[in-house]
Amino acid sequence: MVYDGCTKESGIALVRHGRKHYGTNVIEYVVCSHLDADRACGLAVVLKEMRVLELWMHRPWTHAKLICRCVNDADLTDEAVTKRLREK
Asked: What is the model's pTM?
């Protein structure tokens, strides 16, 4: 299991480590705790270079309707929140 990937350099190191110490190109689970660059950039390398059986990640845009109901702002639409969250 790989939990978060940090920077691109960290992702390269994770791939090397898996190949060298575990003798494999397969990772059963990859977890991305949140989509900030300091967590996800290295995972892009892992996903490209290794065979990942399952990717677990938070997808906040799937909760846009709930978020909009919790915020008292008539200008905030489900579509706008979904778009912003996906872009981030």
From this structure: 0.67
Burial call 14-45: b when 16+ CB within 10 Å, e when fewer: bbeebeeeeeeeebeebbbeeeeeebbbbbeb
Residues of the chain with pLDDT under 70: 72, 88
Q: Which residue has 């008292």 as its token pair?
A: 72
Q: What's the whole-number average pLDDT of the chain? A: 85
Q: Can you tell me the distance from the alpha carbon of 15 to that of 47, in angstroms, rounded to the nearest whole number? A: 10
Which residue in 38, 42, 43 sits closest to 57, CA to CA?
43
Q: Counting Cβ atoms within 10 Å, is residue 2 exposed (0-12), middle (13-18) or buried (19+)?
A: buried
Whether 41 contacts 8, CB under 8 Å? yes
Cα separation of 22 and 82, whole Å? 39
Dist CA 27 CA 38 (whole Å): 20
